[in-house]
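In response to a reviewer's request, we include the raw inputs and outputs for one of the modeled complexes. The two entities were modeled together in a single run.
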Amino acid sequence: MHIDDMILVSIDDHVVEPLDMFEKHVPSKWKDLAPKVILDDKGVERWIYRDRPTGVAGLNAVVSWPPEEWGRDPASYAEMRPAVYDVHDRIDDMNANGILASMCFPTFTGFSAGHISHAKDEVTVGMIQAYNNWHVEDWAGAYPGRFIPIAILPLWEPALAVAEIERVAALGFHSVTMPELPHIDGLPSYHDIEYWGPVFAALSDHDMVMNLHIGQGFGALRLAPDSPIDNLMVLAPSVSQLAVQDLLWGPAMRAYPKLKVALSEGGIGWIPFFMDRSDRHYTNQRWLRRDFGGKLPSEVFREHVIACYVTDKTSLKLRHDIGIDIIAWECDYPHSDSLWPDAPEFVLNELDAVGASDSDIDKITWQNACRFLHWDPFAHIPREQATVGALRAKATDVDISTRSRKEYAALYAQRGI
Amino acid sequence: MHIDDMILVSIDDHVVEPLDMFEKHVPSKWKDLAPKVILDDKGVERWIYRDRPTGVAGLNAVVSWPPEEWGRDPASYAEMRPAVYDVHDRIDDMNANGILASMCFPTFTGFSAGHISHAKDEVTVGMIQAYNNWHVEDWAGAYPGRFIPIAILPLWEPALAVAEIERVAALGFHSVTMPELPHIDGLPSYHDIEYWGPVFAALSDHDMVMNLHIGQGFGALRLAPDSPIDNLMVLAPSVSQLAVQDLLWGPAMRAYPKLKVALSEGGIGWIPFFMDRSDRHYTNQRWLRRDFGGKLPSEVFREHVIACYVTDKTSLKLRHDIGIDIIAWECDYPHSDSLWPDAPEFVLNELDAVGASDSDIDKITWQNACRFLHWDPFAHIPREQATVGALRAKATDVDISTRSRKEYAALYAQRGI
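The model returned the following structure tokens for the whole complex.
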């Protein structure tokens, strides 16, 4: 595989929502209730909704800063690289990194809209709809063929979630973001099929993938109170395993054969161990012997899951044991784990080092993701224009140099936004 | 490798403490305070200490029962295979399974004596000493060369733990059992070096391994309240990763270069992923850059850890990435995951399937464990008598058939114990 011939589709990136995102999408009667950004008394810009702050505006959006500055989140939009929130700049950064298409998770709403779901009413449903409309029209819609839309849902009432799944399916979404562990958000767990059954059925009926991004469920780990921040950062993918455990050993995957689950940023290295342990548990603990329809747990896992990784150099040796059809690479732009702007080099080096064939590489870098998400990468852009080489050729003028938060703030002031 | 030429040393098995274990080891002034077994009003035998029941007597001691009966713990000693608690029968079962030597974790005291440490006083120190004396004299001492002694410690006061480490070191112990996550037992976490530093120093000074068996720290996972028992059983090794995270990224391993940690029943499959993720975190998150003395976290990990597994068929392909010198097989007798009586066949099949050399096999089945624990396997038994073939030749009369709890109870009554 020549690097210029690679095709990269990243199904885990992030958008920091632009300041004006709600302007044209919220019904006029609720205009005053829409989330908005305020500057708090510590000089940090925060989204606020129904009088409650929802967290910093630019969580971990550190791309292109010098690594020494990564310790704090951006205090304001001014400090961020504009491509974090501006779709036109984002396309430039994607081109520079050879990324054909990107699926962008939300930031201020939380990965499962948990940060705005404290007000459980029709207004919040309206805001969630406004978010999804903005996402598909103004973000993904600005550059057809470059973004895979992903929707947020009202999850405090299954019927509302089902209605929004049906609504966004009609708008072309094949992807929703949901919590890894809903019980950590105070919702019933995925074992509660009376609650989640209608949601799983609606997702199945509309070929919709539930994407479980690491982070939401982190509170499931009762870490030592004096543990350093490294613990959170190194251990976050452990929670993907807890999430799959609930879905595989509870009723979800077994009762909904078409349910599809993406483990966003979950990594792949723990999967062979988890599958072997699940199979051994099934065959050895005969007094339990859950009904997997005559299959092994690992087979059911492979029918339902796509496993997403940024870097996993040793475990890629086991790609065929994991399942070469269920692994998808992801970029994680603009977070600190992102490979921008050298993703093509990094990814190809890692795959070459384990002896991956061209077929393996294509599956991992785009084919698996596109198949799983029902997304045709060449519907708007012909294949020969979709490669790393072709995209980078359009980005020769993109400045990829490192720049401090202070420099970004100065440039922002210059532009007089 | 011919199966009869294998040597098997298992550093994770379990003893269910015999009824009379305290009789000759507790000072006479405290005789009445010693833990004893009572029959509760549900017909279950429980150890009781200072008026508090400590759990069932035979946790998960299901060996040789039909698998359909594994769902409940034994209600009484009568229902258990005698080799669970009787050292003479145990030797027969070890011979039948080709096991040269075994390190047996405690049962009723909890893996870190947590079940008897509610009474934090000199009496409990006396009981812990009595336990250790019984373990080294009556259990391990009954058959020199067949058991690797492992001690329990009073952990509620570091000075007491240090004193007991020094005492048992003089008795020939090179192993202690400690909690995976002390903060789950209400103790300071392993990050608190003011508390644990003297303990780590004493362990280092006496070439003593701290063994962290899965189970103690399970409460660190806030699982869904309606999750099935499968979750606990499949996910238990996740906690080994949390434990290592604290020891590797906190000060313990970095400040105590001789500290040795066994991850008992932790499995090996998660380790390549954890090491890669740790190294990537170290190299990528330069704003943190903890001081690993110029080494990578994975290198420090390999200097301190031995990783113990019962079965891990896919991940054994990565044995050289993990480190061929830090993997040790274990049997887990008499629990439901145990491979008795077919350990030699099972282990060899699994290692042959991944193309392990004779050298790899010897390292994994005995050499690594013996080196790590400073234990000479041939001090009492010459090598030619230590093999699977030689041991099994002594056990041709051992009944290895499946037998129900009811049949065991009838035999127990016949023997009139």
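As requested, we also summarize the result in words. The mean pLDDT of chain A is 96. Chain A touches chain B through 66 residues (CB under 8 Å).
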